[in-house]
From TrEMBL:
It comes from the Bacteria. Pfam families: PglZ. NCBIfam families: BREX_PglZ_3. It comes from Acetomicrobium thermoterrenum DSM 13490. The lineage of its organism: Bacteria, Thermotogati, Synergistota, Synergistia, Synergistales. This is PglZ domain-containing protein.
């Protein structure tokens, strides 16, 4: 699972003081969309090589749950106060590596990537002392939340974005700086059709298309009565006051028959994330 990745990286780091690792998380990238991205990268730089595998995301497949678990190196139950926001994600990343014996100067975390690599980010990644860098590329997640053309539109937009060269340039900087580069995602996404939007005011803490989150299980059960095919997800590994109601297969809690691209549920596309080691021949 995603929260196991930092420990895998730590084992690779422990054997050699000269090893540097870049953990590149592309927010919202589904496994099939990785194939589109990979094929364009190969066109842009034929020297790139990919060792491909996959990991399971956390359910519900939300950024604040699954992405934070990936950077914390722990299940979500261990960061209950941060489960509804990613504002302290950098602290979770730094805390994990501090527990592995690294100092603050050895650790970097950069988020909001996807359009260009600023001089500030370039300088951070070029620091000689840097041992681990956690990077968040959120461009695909932003494409997804504005997508009106379904799954086909997602692939087209990812193809066009990758063609612009940001990912190629970022990988080049990391590899040229001596990093071992690993790519993953916090969750995927699917095209889903609306089954109606629950009329419950502010009862739900999070009112996503594929999942709704409650702090009280009785409120979740009440909503399920209106959507009997929805799934009350067991809170294993989640904070005690975090109760998820998952929309049925390829359905969404939005206006009936509307179509969106979303995440939060338990489809294969949402739950299985790519895990890739990148090298250059």
């Amino acid at each position: 699972m995603l929260h196991r990745i930092p420990r895998f990286l730590a084992r690779n780091l422990a054997g050699d003081k000269r090893t540097k690792i870049a953990f590149l998380l592309i927010d919202g990238l589904a496994l099939d969309q990785w194939i589109t991205l990979r094929n364009v990268l190969k066109e842009l730089d034929s020297r790139l090589q990919f060792r491909e595998s996959a990991v399971f995301a956390w359910v519900p497949t939300l950024t604040s749950v699954s992405r934070q678990a990936a950077f914390a190196g722990k299940p979500p139950m261990f960061f209950p106060t941060n489960i509804r926001t990613t504002d302290r994600e950098s602290n979770l990343w730094a805390q994990f590596w501090a527990e592995q014996g690294l100092s603050a100067n050895d650790i970097a975390y950069i988020r909001g990537l996807g359009n260009e690599i600023s001089s500030k980010h370039y300088e951070v990644l070029k620091q000689d002392r840097l041992r681990v860098a956690g990077l968040v590329v959120d461009k695909i997640d932003r494409i997804m939340h504005g997508m009106q053309l379904g799954a086909a539109g997602m692939h087209n937009q990812i193809w066009q974005w990758t063609k612009q060269g940001f990912m190629r340039d970022l990988l080049s900087i990391l590899i040229d700086s001596g990093f071992r580069v690993y790519i993953t995602s916090d969750h995927g996404n699917i095209e889903a059709k609306g089954i109606g939007c629950p009329n419950e005011g502010v009862t739900a803490e999070l009112r996503g298309g594929r999942v709704r989150i409650y702090s009280d299980p009785s409120l979740r059960t009440k909503c399920k009565m209106s959507f009997p095919d929805s799934l009350e997800w067991p809170s294993i590994g989640l904070p005690e006051d975090y109760y998820a109601l998952i929309a049925p297969s390829r359905a969404a809690f939005i206006r009936k028959d509307d179509v969106i691209v979303s995440h939060g549920g338990i489809s294969i596309e949402e739950v299985i994330a790519p895990f890739i080691e990148v090298e250059r021949a």
